[in-house]
Prior knowledge:
Layout: E1 2-9, H1 13-22, E2 29-36, E3 42-45, E4 48-51, E5 54-64, H2 69-80, E6 88-94
Antiparallel strand pairs: 1-5, 1-6, 2-5, 3-4
Helix pairs in contact: 1-2
Amino acid sequence: MKKIEAIIRKTKFDEVKEALIAADIEWFSYSEVRGVGTDRQERIYRGIIYDTSSIERIQLSIIVRDVNVERAIKAITESARTGDIGDGRIFIYPAEDAISIRTGKRGDDTLFNK
Length: 114
């Protein structure tokens, strides 16, 4: 099992969510996060100056079986990519174990995707 953490643009979340569902990645969690990037520009919109050094993003947390890692990565990268700086990052970690609280099952059997 692997844990995939992806940090993506907020504007691309719906596209990434649909791509993951189409790739049979049926369950993941997400949260709104803020980060600091290398771009330190101020932008002016309707007379208001916005500091773009603090960037709003969505962080996805996905646990998948090893056989589904590449499918999940492909879904995220293809749907989140704009080609501009700040498209995000994907991190992959080993997941040691998973336990279903309701059933007590352990390991791969607790995951939805086959």
